[in-house]
Amino acid sequence: MRLDQLLQSQGFGSRNECRRMIECGRVSVGDAGIIRDPDTEIVLERARFVIDGVEFIYQRHVYIVLNKPADFECSHRPERYPSVFSLLPPDLVRRGVQAVGRLDSDTTGLLLLSDDGQFIHALSSPKKAVPKCYEVIARHSVPDTQLEQLEAGVVLRDDPQPAKAISCERVSETIVRMSVTEGRYHLVKRMIAATGNRVEQLRRVAIGGFQLPSSLAPGEWRWLESDELQLLGWKASE
Ligand code: URA
Known about the structure:
Blueprint: H1 3-9, H2 15-23, E1 27-29, E2 33-34, E3 48-51, E4 54-57, E5 63-68, H3 90-94, E6 98-99, E7 108-114, H4 117-124, E8 132-138, H5 144-152, E9 154-156, E10 159-163, E11 167-172, E12 175-180, H6 187-194, E13 199-207, E14 210-211, E15 221-223, H7 226-231
Parallel strand pairs: 7-13
Antiparallel strand pairs: 1-2, 1-3, 3-4, 5-7, 5-15, 6-7, 8-12, 8-13, 9-10, 11-12, 13-14
The protein binds uracil.
Uracil binds next to helix 6.
């Protein structure tokens, strides 16, 4: 791939902006050092490049995990709170990164983001039925009968189609961990409401076999490792 195309693909600006950056001597590539010809062909495999002293490795697609804080919206055009995309560097946002299924503005925890449409589809399509595990802090204590109802399936107030938890366990009197495979709007809150209780706080803690990393503070993000992508049932192509 040509150097100007490579920089553009990584979100560093328009083709012309990237060409100018290169011509000005702001870009060096691996052992070759500064390259001023934007048409130089670059071998993509593990290409490392430095722009203004900051090193980047070529990544065909973006796969990242964010610990979503409360009071952020998962939309590129937020209405009330800042967007989760404001927590990411501009070059990633420019690549067209999307949230893999939205969380409500007051829901916290595991949010995956990617610019790979197939990855987003594989994890969020109802047909794929990938389990999403939530930790629910309920207003009232959660008796066994409510857990049983959630596992048997509850009818939501405004939707005749029953919703089911694939697993549901009590962590303490008012805290429950439940997994669902659907992504219907406010699903967990509406399911808990259907049992006569109420969600006070909601945090997503896992998607498929991948748990929210405990090292990520709210608002922090990082790239997913290839073994983590595998836990999500995904093998990233180079
Ligand atoms: N269910 C909800 O009610 N809210 C979320 O943010 C996610 C699942």
